[in-house]
Write a structure and sequence with these properties.
about 20% strand, alpha/beta, Rossmann fold, 12 strands, globular, about 280 residues, 6-stranded mixed β-sheet
Length: about 280
């Protein structure tokens, strides 16, 4: 890295954030393109109760870009100057761009959902079971319904599932009805169940997964969650959470720097670090 006094800061915020591989992914891209003197990417743990103060810091320090993860995707919206139309429809922001003090909220999570799924199968008329109803789930719900899929949201708090389903033209169920997923085409986990260090947990019993399913877990640490391992054992096709991280990150890279993110370089550094975590 060739950091100097002119280097612009980009960062990821979340709570927890220690597991994040966004710094490795973005900084590898900067180095590949030779812009590592212009940009540096770091991560910062920020409690949701401190988000207003954090945004003041973004303005004061002229931080160029911010990637927002759990639990900030919805809460941060009230402190921004502008929110683009897609992020408004999703109702969540995962990206903040600072243009000369004007903070604009965007959402690139939809690309992290759309690109990996569409590579595997057309979403049109597919039955999608979405586990979870938080900020990340909103991007999933928006994406799959825009592609013409039939959405069913399963959540521990049925009221949240109903609210999300109503917004995006889907149906809502409590987790008690999750046995229905046997009849679905695609299962997407947008909960934090299975996230390191609780990698022994899964949101779904193994016997509910069949070889007809596509199973997508947006968690990427560990690389292969228990849900994905068991889905693979059942003969299902799987999509690793790393794919979502990669494709939403490539879109953020462009928003922050104006350059196209080098996909191969960014993918390889993610695989390298995830393999190290697995060993």
């Amino acid at each position: 890295m060739r950091i100097n006094a002119k280097t612009k800061i980009c960062m990821a915020i979340g709570d927890p954030i220690e597991h994040s591989l966004s710094p490795q992914m973005h900084n590898a891209g900067y180095e590949k393109l030779g812009i590592d003197s212009e940009y540096v990417y770091v991560a910062c743990k920020v409690g949701v109760e401190n988000i207003a103060d954090f945004i003041k810091g973004v303005r004061a320090m002229q931080i160029r870009g911010v990637s927002c993860t759990i639990p900030h995707k919805m809460e941060v919206m009230k402190y921004l100057d502008e929110i683009d139309e897609v992020a408004k429809k999703i109702g969540a922001v995962n990206t903040i761009v600072n243009d000369d003090g004007v903070l604009k909220g965007c959402n690139t999570d939809l690309l992290g959902v759309d690109i990996p799924l569409e590579k595997m199968a057309s979403l049109k008329n597919k039955k999608v079971a979405l586990l979870g109803a938080g900020g990340a789930a909103r991007a999933v719900a928006y994406t799959v319904t825009q592609r013409g899929a039939r959405l069913v949201v399963y959540n521990r708090t049925i009221e949240k599932a109903e609210e999300l389903a109503k917004e995006f033209g889907g149906e809502a169920r409590s987790l008690e009805a999750v046995k229905e997923v046997k009849d679905m085409d695609i299962i997407i986990n947008a909960t934090s169940i299975g996230l390191d260090p609780n990698e022994n947990q899964t949101p779904l019993a193994k016997e509910l997964i069949t070889n007809k399913h596509i199973v997508f877990d947006i968690i990427y640490v560990p690389y292969e969650t228990r849900l994905l391992k068991e889905a693979k054992q059942q003969g299902a096709r799987i999509i690793h959470g790393m794919e979502m991280l990669l494709h939403q990150g490539i879109a953020q890279f462009k928003l922050f720097t104006g350059y196209d993110g080098p996909e191969e370089t960014m993918r390889n550094v993610l695989i390298e670090h995830l393999e190290q975590k697995e060993n």
